[in-house]
Design brief:
167 residues; 5 strands; alpha+beta; disordered C terminus; five-stranded antiparallel beta sheet
């Protein structure tokens, strides 16, 4: 399901009036996670294999990081799309910046406390996304970009699939 920023143009009678309403973009990372949970629930309701707790946590973490990065560093979210298949989920987030995501080379901490010194350049989010994703695609489009991340919906540890609570 794709959620796109509204154009702001009124819908006239005719071709556009017959198109289905496009749901609004989520306003927060929490709403984005809720949308993903709904997509995964629809997938489970249609008979697909259950998603384990660890996999679900990874997916929701990636969604939170992509969405928050688009808000914080990208000038706002312009596209949010989620597609779940039998074995993988794809999440796309668009924003208003052509700047590529950055991974900090080091973190500065306050001496003696270990407390991070906020420098406004970000944290570990993009590194986590890169670690958890099977595939990442970044496409520059006009004045922005779309990042698509593919994650597995199965969990394997030492070649075995653990049983876990399902969605």
């Amino acid at each position: 399901m794709s959620l796109n920023a509204p154009s702001g143009r009124p819908c006239e009678r005719g071709t556009l009036a017959s198109l289905p309403d496009v749901p609004p973009l989520p306003d927060t990372a929490g709403q984005a996670r809720g949308h993903v949970l709904g997509v995964l629930q629809d997938r489970a309701d249609s008979g697909a294999a259950a998603v384990g707790e660890r996999v679900l946590g990874d997916v929701l973490l990636v969604v939170s990081e992509l969405f928050t990065n688009a808000l914080r560093h990208g000038g706002g979210v312009t596209l949010f799309e989620v597609r779940a298949g039998a074995h993988e989920i794809s999440v796309s987030v668009g924003d208003r910046s052509t700047d590529l995501p950055a991974t900090p080379s080091h973190r500065r901490t306050r001496l003696g406390t270990g407390e991070d010194i906020a420098d406004g350049k970000g944290g570990y989010g993009w590194s986590l996304v890169r670690e958890l994703a099977d595939m990442i695609t970044l496409v520059l489009q006009g004045d922005g970009k779309v990042i698509t991340v593919r994650l597995p919906l199965t969990d394997t540890i030492d070649g075995e699939k653990p049983s876990a609570p399902a969605i």
